[in-house]
Amino acid sequence: MPGQLATPSHTGYAVRTTTLPSAAGRPIPPDVLDRLRSIVGGDHVLVTDGDVEPFARDATPLFRARPGCVVLPATTGEVSAILRMATEHGIPVTPRGAGSNLAAATIPEHGGIVLVLTRMTALKEISGDELLAVVEAGVTTAELADACAAKGLLYAPDPGSRTVSTVAGNVAMCAGGLRGLKYGVTRNYVLGLEAVLPTGEVIRTGGRLWKDVAGYDLTRLLTGSEGTLAVITEVTVALLPMPAVARTGVAYFDSLADASRAVAGVIHDGIVPATLEFLDNRCINAVEDFAKLGLDRQAGALLLFGDDGTAEAVERSLSLMASTCERIGARGVTMARDIAESDALLTARRCSLPALARLAPITMLEDATVPRPRLAEMVDRIDAIAVRHNVVCATFGHAGDGNLHPTIVFDPDDGDARHRAEAAFSDVFDAAIELGGTITGEHGVGAAKRPYLERRLGADQMALLRRLKAAFDPAGILNPGKLGS
């Protein structure tokens, strides 16, 4: 059952919840609670309903399950002791950062311990000589990016939740973002990890090197593993020199098909822009109602484009992109005159979800990805699916890499509206796979997309995932039930 709705405790939007069935749900034994308190201190073991309730949900609150307790360690050694004890007693453990994920990946479906890493906030090192940073699990993406920027360095991953999401959480989910086309996603910047296995062993994968092919690439395996194989406690990430200039523009089109042709034209011209995002008409109007940015409400689609680098290179690439959009038949092209206007245009894209969340009490956001040349076809399929299932759906996303975010809004008092929405998303995922794409490009699988994972991978790959899971986690305690385990 897919679905995403931000919660007051994380992002300030309305909330509706549905409880997930718990396969375990047994209370944590008193002697185990005592041992947990001896490891992290009594103030950092939460057990009362009021204290654990915020951790029964994440930013996907159509999903909910109460944990037996919440534990907040401050060191890798404490994480190790907790996991060792949990394996010994067969207690499920759900790792969690800020809880901002969009796939219900941190919902404790089986009860047990929610292991929250937000006390681990040391930004240990930023090295301009080696172009890397070393941070503990609980450092937020924005904190890391801002600290690097102060030293003239760029941490390129740029997820929409950057102000609250943690670096280790981004690694666990392999977060994407607005810079994905030019700079790649989180996995492209993870050099090394410190991680704790469910049995308590502390391992270090990778390191400080851009080149290191000794052994299996466990760093890549743990990146995107959604907390099912190990608990990440420290991350070493690659940095880049900060570009000298960044500029943004926006083009309006009568249809998303025209915008898609402009995207193809930009790439054909040999430009790989830093930003290439789109909003459909419903998104444009929702954003304009919300943020009042002066957007063209009559446009069928908006294409946000931008680049960074030297002043000369950026001027050239933006001029070429604007010309391409005009040649394809843009209704109008606007260039940001300064940083403030660039920020305003980027705000139009970043506030798509909160703007749409104002339209109805429930907002279900998903992501699917198709090859870039199939983007317009996929949007047409989504529109037809919305009509067929009688749902209100808006679509925005990353035009440059074919990653779409169809978003359905509905009133829970509208009878079978939720079931219609779920049926619509099932058809969306089928369409993405049929067009050579996937069920998720950046949000992850978690609990939300678990019913669709085998459609994407097939039975043989699912069996291999389970064997890998068993090798890392023989007792099956770590985020059980996720990623098909």
How would you characterize the overall build of this protein?
The chain has helices at residues 30-40, 49-52, 76-89, 141-149, 167-173, 180-183, 218-222, 256-268, 281-291, 311-328, 339-350, 352-357, 375-389, 417-434, 453-457, 459-472, and strands at residues 45-46, 69-71, 93-96, 113-116, 123-127, 132-136, 153-154, 190-196, 202-206, 231-238, 240-241, 245-253, 275-280, 301-309, 332-335, 362-365, 368-369, 392-398, 403-410. With 485 residues, it is an alpha+beta fold. Among the domains are: 123-241, 2-Layer Sandwich (Uridine Diphospho-n-acetylenolpyruvylglucosamine Reductase, domain 3); 245-353, Alpha-Beta Plaits. The strands form four sheets. Strands 12, 13, 14, 15, 16, 17, 18 and 19 form an eight-stranded antiparallel β-sheet that branches. A hairpin with a 5-residue loop joins strand 8 and strand 9 (202-206). The radius of gyration is 22 Å and the shape is globular. Residues 1-24 have low confidence and may be disordered.
Short description:
With 485 residues, the chain is α+β, with helices and mostly antiparallel strands. 34% of the residues lie in helices and 20% in strands. It has helices at 30-40, 49-52, 76-89, 141-149, 167-173, 180-183, 218-222, 256-268, 281-291, 311-328, 339-350, 352-357, 375-389, 417-434, 453-457, 459-472, and strands spanning 45-46, 69-71, 93-96, 113-116, 123-127, 132-136, 153-154, 190-196, 202-206, 231-238, 240-241, 245-253, 275-280, 301-309, 332-335, 362-365, 368-369, 392-398, 403-410.
